[in-house]
Design brief:
The chain has about 270 residues and is of the alpha/beta class. It has eleven helices and eight strands. The protein has an eight-stranded mixed sheet with strand order 3-2-1-4-5-6-7-8, with helices on both faces.
Length: about 270
């Protein structure tokens, strides 16, 4: 029989995971959600045919418990819960460390932390996962199946690296949207109709992403393949390099990772 997987929180990411699990063949009867918002609960019932309750305390004992609420309300959402070691707790909340979760759930809880990203909505996501030493292999595999239902997964050797994952792939979609936004504006400044410039920027972003995903080549090689010696692309890339684009992105990721650590420190108090 398929594992019983319960979710605390039924927002977009939880809905994405539920949709991915259903698409992978996980039966609706083996999924549960605790979601206090009545409209969202009704939407989940209609879309997936699953049982939804209002409070986490109403959930049955489950093989996996996915924590899908905002970090700021996590402690309140978990009040009174004490899952046993046989339940794999999978937290997808940024910044909430395993030590903090164990303080709220009990020291015997089996906890895996995961950081997915919003392309999971299209089952094109990627997630970094961490489990502390001694975590049963079955728990790791179950967490991989849950997150893998909406994209790729990679396991990390140290929990602090989740802050780097948050900075790179968790926040990463916004960086690409910003680049496309800047391209749209620059294209319009060159005389293109704003709608045309927006279409060109958006479709170029999509196409480049698909090429990177399908080509099986290093990104530097893909870049070189579209950069002719003495051509227009070379001129543009030289300008970006002179402007310090790599340094800007390095600083951006450092800032995001530092903020993640700050959030973790605040929640641990």
């Amino acid at each position: 029989m398929a594992e019983l997987i319960a979710f605390i929180g039924g927002g977009q990411m939880a809905g994405s995971l539920i949709g991915g699990l259903r698409a992978a063949g996980h039966p609706a009867a083996r999924l549960r959600v605790a979601e206090p918002d009545a409209a969202r609960a009704a939407s989940l019932r209609r879309e997936f045919g699953i049982e939804v309750c209002g409070r986490a305390a109403e959930l049955p004992a489950a093989d996996a418990l996915v924590l899908a609420v905002k970090p700021q309300v996590m402690r309140e959402a978990l009040a009174g819960l004490a899952p046993g070691a046989s339940t794999t707790v999978v937290s997808i909340a940024a910044g909430v460390r395993i030590e903090t979760l164990r303080g709220w759930l009990g020291s015997g809880a089996t906890i895996v932390r995961a950081m997915p990203n919003t392309p999971a909505l299209l089952r094109a996501g990627v997630a970094g996962l961490f489990a502390p030493e001694g975590t049963p292999e079955a728990a790791r595999q179950l967490a991989s199946r849950i997150l893998g239902s909406v994209g790729a997964v990679c396991w990390l050797e140290e929990e602090p690296l989740l802050d780097a994952v948050t900075a790179l792939s968790g926040s990463g979609p916004a960086y690409f949207f910003l680049v496309a936004e800047a391209l749209r504006e620059a294209g319009a400044a060159l005389g293109l109709d704003p709608g045309t410039a927006a279409l060109l920027a958006q479709k170029t972003l999509v196409g480049a992403g698909r090429m990177a995903d399908a080509a099986g080549k290093d990104l530097a090689e893909l870049r070189a393949n579209v950069t002719s010696k003495g051509g227009t692309t070379e001129a543009a890339l030289a300008h970006l390099e002179q402007g310090g684009i790599r340094k800007l992105f390095a600083g951006a990721l450092k800032a995001a990772a530092a903020r993640g650590r700050e959030l973790g420190d605040a929640l641990a108090k």
